[in-house]
Specification:
Blueprint (H helix, E strand, L loop, with lengths): L3 E14 L2 E14 L3 E5 L6 H9 L7 E2 L4 E4 L2 E2 L5 H10 L1 E4 L3 H4 L6 H10 L9 H14 L5 H5 L8 H13 L5 E5 L7 H18 L2 E5 L3 H7 L2 E6 L2 E7 H6 L4 H8 L48 E4 L2 E3 L9
Parallel strand pairs: 3-9, 3-10, 7-8, 8-9
Antiparallel strand pairs: 1-2, 1-4, 1-5, 5-6, 10-11, 11-13, 12-13
């Protein structure tokens, strides 16, 4: 059995804003094993990126708070680590590809300065000289299909296109060997051919380095092709978890089924209607199951209590009262 690398337990995240608190994460649970490729899907605003920012300890201060829960990485609670320990964790253990490359890159430093710092401050590169580190930086840019890497190293982020900045962010995340890579929509600013190349690169490096990957994507096709296991998230809670083949062949939660129905079809035989309603107001989230205001199969209990996970089989669990008697 593989070793548990990351274990998120009953995590809550609230944001302090004018007028009160936005209760975004509502007891989130997630587990990732060493070398595993895990997908995380859900509508925009459901808490996917917030969960990963909590793992990285980069929630905005003082507004983002975690009143309850644990994030266990290699048997240590990330939420209780000191500042120096968190910095070492980011340098040597976990990296993240951010969805917005403009916000992820420092505008006042060149790409070369930012990329060389990643190599320079990794404990794996202690003792390496400047020329060696620069060659490593050039190689990392070539690996993400960036032309003329010498020019890129001397450029500032503002001098690059959105797609080039995204590839720089990917190069930064893959620069050193880590145990966990969080890829938050890594192909957002890329055309489909480059996106495919990047996903293949991530997959190859994950295999070579035995690196675990959490892939966040709105594209169910990408998730289906590149992951082994999938978590489905809605309004701050995980609602279903299964191996990738099982989830796509037998989606159980009404929300997962609705997501599958939203995938465009090319046959022309049916129009996708989407999911009625919208993500709830996090100021006043619904009681019980947060999906119940939009659920066509809701019952009275759904409005009263948050459903626990029901184990359907060894590789499939779902948080829905429809399956209460099947676990």
């Amino acid at each position: 059995m593989k070793e548990v690398l990351l274990d998120i337990k009953d995590l809550q995240v609230h944001f302090r804003v004018y007028g009160g608190f936005l209760k975004v994460l509502n007891g989130t649970n997630m587990r990732v094993y060493s070398g595993e490729k895990v997908g995380l899907v859900g509508e925009t605003g459901c808490g996917k990126t917030t969960t990963m920012k909590a793992v990285m300890r980069i929630l905005p201060k003082p507004h983002g708070i975690t009143p309850e829960g644990k994030i266990i990485f290699k048997n240590k609670n990330v939420l209780s680590l000191k500042t120096q320990e968190i910095e070492r964790l980011r340098r040597n253990e976990i990296s993240m590809i951010f969805q917005d490359p403009t916000a992820a890159l420092n505008p006042v430093f060149t790409i070369g300065e930012q990329l060389l710092d990643v190599f320079r401050y990794s404990k794996k590169n202690d003792g390496l000289k400047g020329k060696t580190l620069k060659q490593m930086a050039v190689d990392s840019l070539r690996a993400v299909a960036l032309p003329d890497p010498e020019r890129i190293l001397a450029s500032y982020p503002i001098q690059l296109s959105g797609g080039m900045r995204q590839r720089v962010c990917i190069a930064l995340a893959l620069a050193n060997q880590k145990q966990l890579l969080i890829a938050d929509e890594p192909g957002t600013s890329l055309d489909v051919t480059i996106q495919d190349q990047i996903l293949r690169l991530i997959h190859r490096l994950a295999e070579e380095r035995n690196m675990a990957v959490i892939l966040i994507s709105h594209s169910l096709g990408v998730i289906r092709e590149w992951t082994e296991r999938v978590y489905v998230m809605y309004a701050g809670s995980m609602v279903e978890e299964a191996t990738t083949p099982k989830l796509f062949s037998q989606p159980l939660h009404p929300y997962t089924q609705a997501l599958m129905e939203c995938v465009p079809r090319l046959t022309g035989m049916k129009t996708n209607e989407g999911i009625p309603g919208r993500i709830p107001d996090y100021f006043f989230p619904p009681t019980g199951c947060r999906f119940h205001p939009r659920c066509p199969k809701k019952m009275a209990i759904c409005q009263e209590e948050k459903p626990p996970f029901y184990q359907i089989d060894d590789n499939h669990q779902v948080a829905c009262y429809l399956y209460k008697g099947e676990s």
